[in-house]
Amino acid sequence: MIEAVKFDRLYVEITNTCNLSCTFCTPHWRDNRVMSVEDFQRILNQLSPFGDHLYFHVKGEPTLHPELKTFLDLAHQAHKKVHLVTNGTLISKLTFDLGAHPALASLVISLHSLQPLPTSAQKTILGDLSRFLTVNRQRTLTIYLRLWNENNGVLIQWLSDYLGQPIHYTPSKKRQPLIDNLVLDTDQAFEWPDIEHPKVTDKGTCYGGLKMLAVLADGTLTPCCLDHNGHLALGNLLETPISELLTSPRYADFRNGLEHGQLIEDLCQRCTYHLKHKKRISQG
């Protein structure tokens, strides 16, 4: 029964716009869009039976959204836990206490987003983040400081100074607990899949569609959180019930392929991200 399907992660892209242009974040081809409160509520109602953890992420900077607090309130009313991924540049400008919101379970701050910024801007933002981390150290949410690139000397020095102890950075997939609820999340940068990339393989599997789904800012439902242009679109949640989309032939074939180690979609055959986690997926 489709009603019994539960996903570990439900990605909701509340906006696909961003205030930065990071080199590691491939631009999407879609029109810029900011999800309305009405559309978010309709999407939340559809997703609600299928999982308890909402990730406000695919593309875009969620703290840009003027209704972020309203979305968190609605998620809390629906008994959902929210996970945010942010570049951290706008946290100090929010008009509410983000870290204290009861819906927020974790916050990922992509520190490497600050690398291209002028030194003066970095200094200001890192100062704001220091104050934010201090205020939230005794709260229940987990804060991940993400470093996915090399040449992070300035950021590592800032973190070492903040903690009062040296931090040793290696670009490998690792999470290093620091103090209280603060975790350093390190890895090498990955390449977003693109239909114009060369084919890599038609063998493999992934969590996309099996343990997670993603909804783009216009309501498009896709099985993959990296499908930033909607090539794997199953349909639109603002137009079609999710029960129909998850019983469609395309989703059934996609899921069956992954369960048997076959990448049947063209985009998946051009993706290298699943290779990063091949061992962990095979064991999971």
Structure description:
This protein has 284 residues and is of the alpha/beta class. It contains nine helices and ten strands. It has a ten-stranded mixed β-sheet with strand order 6-7-5-4-3-2-1-8-9-10, covered by helices on one side. A hairpin with a 4-residue loop joins strand 6 (174-177) and strand 7 (182-186). The longest helix has 18 residues, at 119-136. The two termini are 23 Å apart.
What is the gist of this entry?
The chain is an alpha/beta fold and 284 residues long. The protein has helices spanning 37-47, 68-77, 119-136, 153-163, 242-245, 249-259, 266-269, 273-276, 278-283; strands at residues 9-12, 53-56, 81-86, 104-110, 142-147, 174-177, 182-186, 212-215, 220-222, 235-236. Strand 2, helix 2 (68-77) and strand 3 form a beta-alpha-beta unit.
**Alpha-beta content class:** alpha/beta
* Helix coverage percent: 25-40%
Let me know the number of strands: 10
Rough outline = globular
Rg value: 19 Å
Low-confidence stretches: none
Strand order of the largest sheet: 6-7-5-4-3-2-1-8-9-10
Q: Please count the helical segments.
A: 9
Report how far the terminal alpha carbons are from each other: 23 Å
Give the biggest beta sheet.
10 strands, mixed
> Quick check: average pLDDT?
91
Strand content: 15-25%
User: Which series of helices and strands comes N to C?
Assistant: EHEHEEHEHEEEEEHHHHH
Name the descriptors.
single chain; 284 residues; alpha/beta; ten-stranded mixed beta sheet; 10 strands; 28% helix
